[in-house]
Structures are given as C-alpha cells and as structure tokens.
Design a protein that fits this description.
single chain, 4-stranded antiparallel beta sheet, alpha+beta, about 45% helix, globular
C-alpha cells in the first residue's frame, strides 16, 4: 500500500488550502472552494477564513460574494452546522446533507407545536411561513425582530418540554425562520451593524437544481478528498455527519484509493492523487476559530500536538484562533479591546517562524481595521490573550 507521511500531509495543507502566500488567490469563492466549505456559525469566521487565503484581503469582496452576487451562500448542512459554500457546490451540499437536516428541523418544530397543546399544527406553520414570505416581498429584507412586528404568528409563544424539569416558554420566531432557512426559502442577507454581527436581515432564498442524494454524496466526498486527503473513514464521517454506510458508499463511488498513514492507520485519497506535492515556500498563518484547516479531520494529530488541545479548544471541541507554521499549529492569537492583535507560541520556533508570524499578525490587523473580533466559542488561550 502506498504511504503518505504526516510531513506530506502538512505540505498538502499549505498548498491546497491556499495558506502559503504564493498559493493565495483573489476571489473569496475560490477561497471557499479551496477548503470545500467555510464555517459560518460565527459571522466573522467567514471573512477571516476567506481573507487568510486572499492575496489582497478585504471585507468588501467577501460581502459582495455573500450579499450582492450571492456566489457564496450559507447552508445549514454538515453536522447541522452553518457553512458558506460556493453557489456551484451548493446543490450537492443541499442534496447530500442539507435536505435531510431541513426535514428533521421541520419535524422537530412540529413536535414542539404538538406537545404545546395549543392547537398549533402543520397548517398553522404553513400559514406562518407564507406570511413571512409575503412580508419579505412587501417590505424587503428584514431582521427577525422586524418580521415579528409585521407577522403576528411569529409573536406566538409555546411551552417546550412540558412537564420536564427543563420546561420553558419560548417564542416561535427563531424556530420558524430557522426552518424556512433550512428549506432554502429564505437566506441571510446583510446584517445590522458590521461584518462581525450575527443580527442578519432575512431575504428570499433560491431553489437549487435537483441532484440525486447518492450522486451528491459522491461528489462532495471527491472534492473533500482532493482538499483533505489522505484522510480516514472516521474523518469523512465526522466532517459530513453521514452514517458510516453513506461514507463507505461514497468512497466506493468515487473509486477512492487506500493509502497508509503514519501511525498505521488507513487513509483514502482521490483517484490518482498519490504523487507528493512540492513543498511551498515557508509560510505562517493566523486562522480564526473554527477554520476548516483545523476542524476538517476527526484526528488532527498530524498538525496539532495533543498537549496544546487544552489551551486551543473549548470543552465542546471547538478550536479557537490558531497560529500556524508550515502546516503545524504552534500557538494561538487574539484581539484585545484596543484592537491590537496578540499571539503566543506554544512550541519553540526559530527567528524565521517568529518573523513570519509577526508579518501575518500585522497583515491581519491591517485589513481588520477598527472591527473588534470576539469568537463565538471562546477558548482558554484566547481569553487569556485578549484580557
């Protein structure tokens, strides 16, 4: 069996993820495709991840792709997580993962409506959804608060988990909008405030071309392997949230090739992707929390030392802002209230690495400008550095 070393995996990461300076591009959509999908749970992450991969980083280019051209779209998809993907890839993400999640989201909301006992049902939900869509046509993009003022049904409250110790009374607005967004009938438009804000306005969504689910899973697996391979079945299962059966069927459908990994595990690569990548120039990167280059594998031992996990991850397994050198995480960074970008190395580094990190910190501070970034999922090192 062909073997691919951890060193070669780090070389692939730097080149294929567009992190080495010579590999950076000019288009945020290409930056997203370079890692298949950008995490979008935290509004700022999309911008930080995209700009880390651009020769000339800038907020305006990412906003144009998200809101004007809509060539970069947010979908509730892999692992029921919000991702931003290219419009060209969106139909495959929709068919392979997002559709099943949308069905489950609707089923969950209908179950809550039924257990509330207030007579709310699927007909009530359908009427509420149509009222929301009509309000958007009538008044244009609007926040959830604005829609609630315009659509009386969104001001309805229900009791969730009645009779349980965690019983609670909640409004339905967020849940109804989430179901509409999961179905693709509405999408997130420009937020109120800056690019770091999660107070999105909502606008009409779009319908994606129909793709067979198995075909879509195969295509998504193929693209993922080209970016993250070699990787194990467990890695692909973790990233997608698919069943093991779906993972194995997709790998078979794309004729993925088995390879040996350091440590004895068996990995997979896309067909013919066995030749070693040529190492790019030495590179450093400051990546945001939840960046795909840190979150795409279940086993990240080839680029993150185990002893650094307690400083860089929160208790739920979300990674915070990281400092990279030649494909390995060597530290973390944060932004202080006065805007200063600060960082700390968790492992030894020579003068070349330190100088490169300083250059990247300056580059990041330059385009972020007056914005203040507080990760949604905060980690011990980020909290300490930002204090």
């Amino acid at each position: 069996m062909h073997r691919i070393s951890d060193e070669q995996r780090r070389i692939r990461l730097g080149r294929r993820h567009r992190l080495a300076p010579s590999t950076r591009g000019d288009d945020p959509v290409e930056a997203a495709d370079a890692v298949v999908a950008l995490h979008a749970t935290d509004a700022a992450t999309v911008f930080l991840s995209a700009c880390a991969r651009l020769s000339t980083p800038g907020i305006e280019a990412v906003e144009q792709a998200l809101y004007d051209d809509v060539t970069l779209v947010r979908l509730l998809s892999m692992r029921r997580t919000l991702f931003a993907v290219s419009a060209e890839l969106a139909p495959y993400v929709e068919a392979s993962t997002a559709h099943a999640i949308a069905v489950k989201e609707r089923s969950t909301l209908l179950a809550h409506l039924e257990e509330d006992g207030g007579g709310l049902d699927a007909r009530w939900l359908a009427e509420a959804e149509e009222a929301v869509l009509a309000a958007l046509v009538r008044g244009g993009p609007a926040t959830g608060t604005q829609l609630s003022a315009d659509v009386p049904a969104l001001r309805t409250k229900i009791t969730v988990f009645p009779g349980k110790k965690y019983e609670a009374v909640q409004g339905v607005a967020t849940r109804v909008l989430r179901v509409l967004a999961a179905d693709g009938r509405i999408r997130r438009d420009r937020p109120r405030g800056s690019w770091t804000s999660s107070q999105f306005r909502w606008t009409a969504g779009r319908t994606w071309p129909a793709v067979d689910a198995a075909e879509a899973r195969a295509e998504l697996a193929r693209r993922w392997l080209l970016v993250y391979g070699p990787a194990t079945e467990a890695d692909l299962k973790w990233w997608t949230g698919w069943s093991l059966g779906h993972v194995r069927t997709a790998l078979t459908a794309v004729a993925a090739e088995k390879v040996g990994l350091d440590g004895g595990a068996t990995g997979y690569v896309a067909p013919g992707d066995l030749e070693p990548d040529v190492a790019p120039e030495p590179w450093a990167a400051l990546l945001p929390g939840l960046d795909p280059s840190a979150m795409a594998w279940a086993d990240r031992g080839f680029h993150i030392d185990a002893e650094h996990r307690s400083a860089l991850f929160d208790r739920s397994g979300n990674i915070g802002p990281t400092v990279w050198w030649n494909g390995r995480v060597i530290g973390g960074w944060a932004q202080r209230p006065d805007g200063e970008v600060v960082w700390r190395l968790l492992t030894g580094a020579d003068r070349e690495a330190t100088a490169a990190v300083e250059t990247e910190a300056s580059r990041l501070a330059g385009w972020v400008g007056d914005a203040r970034i507080t990760p949604r999922f905060r980690t011990p090192l980020e909290r300490e550095l930002s204090a």
